[in-house]
From TrEMBL:
Domain (YrdC-like): residue spans on this chain: 15-204
PANTHER family referenced in this protein's UniProt entry, alphabetically: DHBP SYNTHASE RIBB-LIKE ALPHA/BETA DOMAIN-CONTAINING PROTEIN, THREONYLCARBAMOYL-AMP SYNTHASE
Organism: Aureispira anguillae
Highest taxon in the source lineage: Bacteria
InterPro entries noted in UniProt: DHBP_synth_RibB-like_a/b_dom, Sua5-like_dom, SUA5_domain
Example GO molecular function: double-stranded RNA binding
Pfam families in alphabetical order: Sua5_yciO_yrdC
Name by which UniProt lists this protein: L-threonylcarbamoyladenylate synthase
SUPFAM superfamilies: YrdC/RibB (SSF55821)
Amino acid sequence: MSAIFLEIHPENPESRKIKQAVQIIKDGGLVIYPTDTLYGLGCDITNNKAVERVCRIKGIKPQKANFSFICSDLSNIAFYTKPFSNSIYKSMRKNLPGPFTFILKASNQVPKMLKNNRKNVGIRVPNSPIVSQLLEGLENPIISTSIKNIDDDITPYPTDPYTIYEEYKHLVDLVIDGGFGGNVPSTVIDCTNNQPEIIRLGLGDLQY
């Protein structure tokens, strides 16, 4: 059975379509969706079987998975991270929502949820109405990864949602068409030493 291909307006998402997408994710489905950078592959963070499916698609073991947590805002991230400095929080407040991934020390809950020994976690709050409304309906973060290995410098990152659908329609349950995506990943900031350090320069101009 092929995945659903669902066109959603990128600036004014239709509530009916958002509800349809949210229900698919709640039911354990995998979704490919647009962010403010690349198209991502994700699922409900609380569904272990769905997380395992994402790992199989990426060809990685769950114990070694290195996913980002896509959050609606910063209000509940303390559940997923250990305490961090006020200066880092201010930096996150200044730059999010936006095309940035902040690497923080993971709370004790993360290994229990993902069944691995992750010590760090990447937090993303994309500047995307589609993502924002998906998360509002889901009431959980989406655990997410890129659909292509970002370290692959040879293969161009796919930006056409229909091309993505044709490649992944038998692997996922839903592909959201929010228009052409970008081909530059997020900027990654390592905050695990309480001194922010850019470890991957991507989209966005980090404000200090």
